[in-house]
DNA sequence: CATGAATGAGAATTCATTCAT
DNA sequence: TATGAATGAATTCTCATTCAT
């Protein structure tokens, strides 16, 4: 007997998930260009053809991985409760950002590379901007609360620091004194380092 | 009668220059991997074969581009006189760094991209390290003089800020509030903003 | 619905066969180096890409051609019964060898060419050695039985004669007095020529 | 003042010689295909262009090397005086042949490879045939004198033995019991082995 | 929905040959 | 006569994508 539409939907969702779960670490570790569709398919345990049932092309897979991650990471940012002080939330935010970079270095690397490329597909640019503005929306009130004059600029500025530290970490690896950098960063915002 | 060695040298230098001039913006705009030898050749108005007459392989072209630019930019740092105060030198250094990034975005972009590439080449890593340590040697005494506890870390930290700002500028272009960022940066080091 | 695994296997086997069937005469007529993958593909009526779907690289194709032919020709040597006299077996062996060369000149040509190639591959050398030692194991007892002092050297020596005759036949073709050569060979081992 | 025609001629002959002297060991060691014109030029200490002043193309160089060698080796065959016995001349001829193979293995390899290729240039085939018939003319009277029924076939036959031994030597290198093979060969012609 | 065989457009690199001087 | 810069076709190999089933 044929599968019910529900079954089909769930099967489809499952294989889609398998593909994205396979693609993320591959993109992350080896970069977008050096990850082949064949590798993704093999790693996901599906056929190459199936990937093209779910996605139009390789860039599309990247975008989906992107969005997937966005959802997850937006949850990451939801962690702080409404009742926490701005001070505590900034502290948490710094820790989370750094932790994310440390835990997903290759993904961050990819993000930066994409941000630097002039010719990335339109849609990707939009997605990257979306991430940025997302973060902005989240952080602006925080710096407002903390009494900064130009909270928007302040967010960009702390973002630059995050990016710079990420860059250092990515290029120097174990040699990078991440701890020191983070403490230095916190001290600039009068956050007690533990 | 054959061309004189001088003629040959000048002809060769000319085509070599054409190749490097074509390769640089391509590498920086699209990245090393996405730039093909065919594209470089076409852009330079020479044949693919000629590139291999000048360079052993693609990586070699990159290295040559690199060295070429290093030469051009190395003088930038030779600017400050011995008698200037640490305060003034830091101010100058910040201004020069920012100005350089603004004036040579492609070059900075390429530098960052290369710093992010894991595999490109050993030889390049040496070149990049050379730049870094060069800068370090220059800046450490400065922060020592300014009384910082851990001048080496401080150099890395301000370097991260530079990098982060550069990254922002490169991805947001005209939308980036560079002025604000620089002022913010200077204020953190108690430098009067003009 | 997808093809069944059986269908796929048969389709794959078919195209694999087409490739090997195209590669064999090309390799033997023009040699390994002068046979390009493009030529093989065209001759086989498939795309270049497909060859790489079946084989990792050009050498791999050669090895497959090799193994393919080995299988076909290995039975040739299984012919003589245990009860035949050494004299008769030697006679048979000579006839079979010559007949094989005559019937499979391309294959013999390829074999000789490969034996002459220094570098082609390690793996192939193993294959070629396997053939040689196979033949040795078969012939040494024969010459032992015939009372030769140094049967191993004798095998090498008659092998050289086979090779030399094959070489003559391959380069002179119909002009080569094969009959005469064989009779001359047999007379040296006191075998009556019919 | 301009060079005299004689000077020009001698200079030309000199550079021609340099090219051939460079080309022979290269062809010999690495084979025809794997020897590039650039390598020959560098080794000869001349420009690539000059080679094309002397020869139409790469095959032409090979042919010239060939002819050059022929001349030299024809002298080799002139060594035996008129007054030597057929027995001594055969002995000498065997020794010389083997010695030549031993001393110029790569050249012999090249010769065999060329003989096996179907598509070598016409002119080369002629040259190879010339070598063969040369040898034939030299050896036929010898075997006539020794009382063989069919001296022409006999020459082909001993030639096959030479070729076979050469093949063995080329593929087994130091492992080949050349001494034994030669002694075996000589014994077949009732030549005392020293 | 799913498969993987097949394609074809490039990618880097090599090299015989030409040509301006 | 002599140079070596320059060309362009060919080579091996990769990979996103298509398609018959």
Automatic annotation (TrEMBL), chains A, B, C, D:
Recite the UniProt keywords alphabetically.
DNA-binding
UniProt keyword DNA-binding, yes or no: yes
One of the entry's Gene Ontology molecular-function terms is: DNA binding
Fetch the Gene3D superfamilies from UniProt.
Tetracycline Repressor, domain 2
Give the annotated DNA-binding region, as residue ranges.
36-55
Ranges where the HTH tetR-type domain occurs: 13-73
Question: Which InterPro entries does the entry mention?
Answer: DNA-bd_HTH_TetR-type_CS, Homeodomain-like_sf, HTH-type_Tx_Regulator, HTH_TetR, Tet_transcr_reg_TetR-rel_C_sf
Give the protein's recorded name.
Answer: TetR/AcrR family transcriptional regulator
